[in-house]
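Researcher: Watch the backbone:
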Amino acid sequence: MSKLHNGLNKQVANLAVFFVKLHHHHWYIKGQHFYGLHAKFEEFYDEVNELYDAVAERLLMIGGKPYSTMKDYLANSSLVEASGGETATEMVTAIKQDFKTLRDEFNALIKVAQDEGDEVTTDLLIGAVTSFDKHIWMLNATLGK
């Protein structure tokens, strides 16, 4: 398996774990910012779901085999599941950190895709990083940073 295949597969796992985590936060958000954060978390998981599918399908297109079980996702993800009982601020902070992790790993993977001459994968990853950067900025503003 190539370095690009391994890197994309790790991101399949990350995106799957993040998708579930975002749902958890969407369902369990409480407090004065409920309406705004409830809706924002839904936007995030919809976006992550599309990217999760796109990365997995790209991996298939280039001859890889994406992870497809919770066991594989949890064993290979850089992200951790939600623990439960988080405050709104803790949820926003955790989501921001997960977007930062994804951004950093996608940036590293862009270099791998470029080294392998895979401009289609490079484009997919660059588009995702652009979105992650915007989310990080907005979440920092939400946290007053």
Q: What stands out?
A: Residues 54 and 124 are 8 Å apart (CA to CA). The chain has a mean pLDDT of 97.
